[in-house]
């Protein structure tokens, strides 16, 4: 009997068809978004001719550029701080035993579990109360703006970074760190030359996730933002409420391309880190790294 007519062959064809339908469901809207971003017509659903008109209007629109600038500033600082704190949190929870560790472990995952609206309301109340206390005690008058948005993004990004880095740490061979100690490396040298290169792919993945979440957030940002601190996703959401235009397609396409570039950079960095981690698995290479540190 022909393989294509067997029950197994039919099941494979059915699974293949299902895979193509899933890919079509996910990527067809993206293709349409990109194609219609080059549409010259004012109507988003009617194609007339190809044009860069809406990209030109996007880069000439001060409100769009201001919102983009705010998004990049917030995302940059939120990613850096949350990556450092999230990595430290992951190392503390995975490598050390201390009083209150179980409680901290549970609290660390709350921003991932709770709804965005709940997180937004919590942060809004916290900032309102904190700013009131600072004003009463120190006379410092703070208002909602880029600072509150950045702090809010750090608050929920730390958990995502910690989860990714901790998953990487759990797969790490602890014997390499012990070997570094046997080669007279101190705790900092062992971390910098062995542990950090091995968990670098996880750190890079956590940083990329934090950057993406910060750039895409709408709900939390809307609650804690103030006048003049509108980010690009919030601005796009406001445009959608007034009606979909090809300008939204152009802005969304730029954000999509930027995300793809970040993913490509992260993958390249992770591959380099993976190669270095495999090199450190060689005792001679490990000894060379420690010796270079001592010298």
The 3D shape can be described as globular
Coarse structural class: mainly alpha
So how many helices? 13
**Succession of helices and strands:** HHHHHHHHHHHHH
**Cα-based radius of gyration, to the nearest Å:** 24 Å
Characterise this structure.
With 295 residues, this protein is mainly α. It contains 13 helices and no strands. It starts with 6 loop residues before the first helix and ends with a helix.
Features:
globular; 13 helices; 295 residues; mainly alpha
Write the layout of secondary structure elements.
Layout: H1 7-36, H2 53-60, H3 62-95, H4 101-108, H5 110-113, H6 116-138, H7 146-170, H8 174-182, H9 187-216, H10 219-224, H11 232-242, H12 246-280, H13 283-294
Helix pairs in contact: 2-12, 3-7, 3-9, 3-11, 7-9, 8-9, 9-12, 9-13
